Amino acid sequence: MNYYHHIKLLSYLFFIVFIITSCKHKEDEYHNITDKIEAESKNYHGTSISSEKYIGNVKTIEVTENGQTFLIPERKEQIKSFACTECHTQPLHKMQSKDATKKAHWNIKVNHADSNTMDCTTCHNGDNPDNLKSLTGNSIDFNNSYKLCSQCHQKQYKDWTGGAHGKRIGGWAPPRTSMTCVNCHNPHSPSFHSKWPARFNTQKIKERK
Ligand code: HEC
Ligand code: HEC
Ligand code: HEC
Ligand code: HEC
Q: Per-residue b/e over 186-202, b at no fewer than 16 CB within 10 Å?
């Protein structure tokens, strides 16, 4: 036998010894990680860790979407001009003035889809502004405004229900609390614009010293 045969035999031997010992070893009751996860999750009743204290004072509501149940921040208390019906005591067409310089919501401009696709009443109900409105005319609560967005942005909506789009409040421990679309996107002007750093650094070399 030559030198290489010895090496080969030896490594076979080591391999067999390794298999035997690794299966006998107490910590390795399971042959692979999938077996271990399956077996240990049978007796798993959740974790005692909670991210509740990090959610702090954020008032939340529970939603079930796409098979997932989680919390999102409540909105209606955050909307300054809610309840709309404090002023909107009549249907919209009766309140609208012809004078374009005296618009009540002069500060709101739709910079979203183009004006053929979207105007105020695509999302707001002129007869009952306290609720949003679906494309087919159904009422959507302001707290569930993601339902409005999901009509046209299914991909982001599905990613959001799975936790891939958007952000968690608190942490990864339960209860899952996710920001809702309007926490990040202004519905009237939803895209983000690129911006310069607050201070333009012309002194790089100096700062690095
Ligand atoms: C302080 C009073 C006030 C409150 C509060 C208020 N509105 Fe209005 N809103 C008005 C008036 C007045 C008009 C009519 C303005 C015009 O077209 O001249 C109006 C018009 C509108 C229009 C039509 C705008 C246009 O350009 O045609 C929409 C949509 C609207 N309101 C939605 C809302 C919603 C939704 C809320 C609640 C979140 C709300 N408003 C709260 C006073 C108010
Ligand atoms: C793409 C849908 C959409 C369109 C179009 C739209 N809105 Fe809104 N608007 C919303 C949603 C959603 C909210 C609630 C946002 C939140 O939770 O803060 C809102 C909030 C408001 C509010 C309350 C804002 C506050 O902070 O007090 C007013 C007033 C309003 N909209 C008026 C208008 C007017 C007037 C137009 C047309 C010029 C318009 N909206 C167009 C979806 C829309
Ligand atoms: C009636 C359909 C419709 C509704 C409802 C709607 N959107 Fe849009 N949205 C569009 C269209 C059309 C565009 C422009 C085309 C594009 O960029 O995808 C757009 C653009 C956007 C963009 C910018 C996309 C980019 O590439 O920069 C964001 C972000 C967005 N919408 C978020 C929202 C949110 C949040 C809501 C709910 C408050 C919402 N949209 C409701 C149709 C809609
Ligand atoms: C935690 C903040 C956050 C939340 C919550 C959020 N988004 Fe976004 N969204 C973003 C950011 C950041 C981008 C990327 C913008 C960019 O690349 O310019 C984005 C991009 C988008 C775009 C543009 C296309 C794309 O994927 O780049 C759409 C449409 C959109 N979001 C819709 C939604 C809808 C609908 C919801 C709710 C179901 C939602 N977003 C929730 C932060 C958020």
A: ebeeeeeeeeeeeeeee
